[in-house]
Amino acid sequence: MLTTIVGGLLLVLHIAGVLAAMHAVINTRTPQGAFAWALGLVLLPYATLIPYLYLGRSHFHGYVDLHRARRDQMQALADAQLANGSSGPEVNERYGEIAHMLGARFHPGQRLRLLINGDATFEAIFAAINEAKRCVLVQFFIIHDDMLGKRMQQALIDRVRAGVDVCVLYDGIGSHALPNEYVETLQEAGVIIHPFATQRRSNRFQLNFRNHRKIVVVDGVRGFVGGLNVGDEYLGLKPPLAPWRDTHLEIEGPAVADLQRSFAEDWHWVTGELPPLLKPQQGSGNAHTLIAATGPADRQETCSLFFVSLIHAARQRLWITTPYFVPDQAVMSALRLAVFRGVDVRVLIPCRPDHRTVFLATSLYAHDAVLAGIRVFRYQPGFVHEKVLLVDDDTASVGSMNLDNRSFRLNFEIGALNVDEEFATEVETMLSDDFAHAHEVTAAEYEKAPYLRRLAMHVARLFDPVL
Predict the structure, then answer these.
(1) Annotation marks residue 79 as catalytic
(2) Active-site annotation holds for 238
(3) CATH classification of 61-288 is 3.40.50.300, yes or no?
(4) Is 232 a catalytic residue?
């Protein structure tokens, strides 16, 4: 009797595995991902069926339909707020394909402020919030109820009490540890705060398609974007990853309207309403800035193509910092071609893991990169989490995008692409200091590693589609 029951359960599992494999073959975005899921679901449904329920779904039609329907409307609204101005022909010629792909534009006259590490970033953000007169928009992937989180909470409550409208979005999975009491305290004070999810109805199986964006906009005038979330670890206060190395960016000028637009699209999906949208100031700086908002609702794989286009644009130098180096074939091929053009290609990655599987896969890709002539460095003082890219002597990107499949295809991301020699020089100085605190990876790192560690690297790479 027991044998019959067990046999029946196994049969049901295998049938479910086959059905899920059929779903994976039809719906998974890449052939590699479809093959990996299908093979596992057919041969080992006991081990892969439950992970597939959480990670395998590739469609969320409600958000996609609304995103595409409202994108042109939001662009027209943003255009109506902006002063007439256009970037020079050189900027449009070099990066016009990125602007066209994203339905975005370069805005001239931006004032930029490079914010290095958590202390500088949050001092600038809190100073801006404390000066807010009309509206504060806040969006983070992670908000913790710790020292920094409580400071953010109080700053927002103070602004509401001063008569300022405050809207907050946080990712429901990224901030899964955020207690209800934290949110309720903000709501009771008058802060409008919501978790983001691609499905309005709760779905415990939906772990993909997270909103990884970090946006703060104050009075429509000052905007912040970059790699830092709200938590003590981002101030370097939590070993063993401390000190935490990260970078953020403050923007003043018309490009802030595009930060508002990105926030407004997500806010409208969650609430059915639009947040206050305020007119930005005229540009008084020298930078040309494009806000690159990418995500799985786009018709193209915009994040991967964003990196590919920037890599192809490099002629003398391409420096990249990323905590997760798991490039897809297009990005890896672009990096190899840059080496053949004689470009100084460098990649800065961590020397210690925050996610062990991703770290192992990163180590294998680092080895492949070294063999291709790409210089790879491991940052030594602590964990490097910054997402910065420097092209030649005049172009720098700061944002939330990692070089991995999750950013390329599964997460909603945002960054600022800036063309300005003075700002690029600041980024060069910052990255030169980072590389000075790193050691260069050689082929020996992989070749001298124990056999089981090398095996673990190759096994980790099999999970590329969900890393």
Answers:
(1) no
(2) no
(3) no
(4) no
